[in-house]
Amino acid sequence: MTKYKVNQVESEILPNLLGLSNLADIEKSEFEGFLMAEFDLSEKLSIRTKININYIRNIHKLALKHLYSFAGKYRTVNMSKGGFLFPSALFIHENMQVFEQEILSKLPNKYSDNEDLINDIAIVHAELLFIHPFREGNGRTARLLANLMARKQGIPILKFENIKFDQYVKAVQKVSEKDYTLMKQIIKSII
């Protein structure tokens, strides 16, 4: 679990439904939740699966509902990471609506070439990470969504473990300028 600056206070252990107070136990529980969500969503995935904000919220809810009461709900606190301030919690709902209207609603069910798929995965992934709509689990939700987008087209999972973290952070920060070039390069290198 990564430290986030939340309302000017560093927080490592979030209150949770299981009463866990050990960071290793929480990380294990989160990992298991995302693993089960990936299995469940992969089993139900079809070419007609519609990726929208409800689908994204469902990913988050499936993965973390056993652990957090906020699973599948937008965050209500402002957050930053490494000095980078994510969009205000006050505007998360609006930002997600725009994300759906301008990007998600235009995703095709079937891609005719991998370049278009890579492009869309990069944009969706970068925007979701930039908006950072959830209190916890944004990166894992975005990575799971990217893998589901790839699997939907018959492509194996992406190799996120091969990403250089500092380059990844820069790619997310460039979204503020609507520059997806670096994220496209990253996605292309791991597909």
Topology overview:
Blueprint: E1 4-6, E2 9-11, H1 23-44, H2 53-64, E3 79-81, E4 84-85, H3 92-102, H4 114-131, H5 138-152, H6 165-173, H7 181-190
Helix pairs in contact: 1-2, 1-5, 2-5, 3-4, 4-5, 4-7, 6-7
Could you give the order of strands across the largest sheet?
2-1-3-4
Structural class designation: mainly alpha
CATH class: Mainly Alpha
* Tally of separate domains: 1
Which topology does CATH recognise? Fic-like fold
Please give the share of residues in helix: 40-55%
Question: Could you please describe the fold and organization of this structure?
Answer:
The protein is mainly α and 191 residues long. Helices cover 51% and strands 6% of the residues. The protein has one domain: Fic-like fold, CATH 1.10.3290.10. The protein contains 7 helices and 4 strands. Helix 4 packs across helix 7. The protein is globular, with a radius of gyration of 16 Å. The relative contact order is 0.13.
Describe the structure concisely.
The chain is mainly α.
Q: Main attributes?
A:
191 residues, mainly alpha, Fic-like fold, 4-stranded antiparallel sheet, 7 helices, 51% helix, disordered N terminus
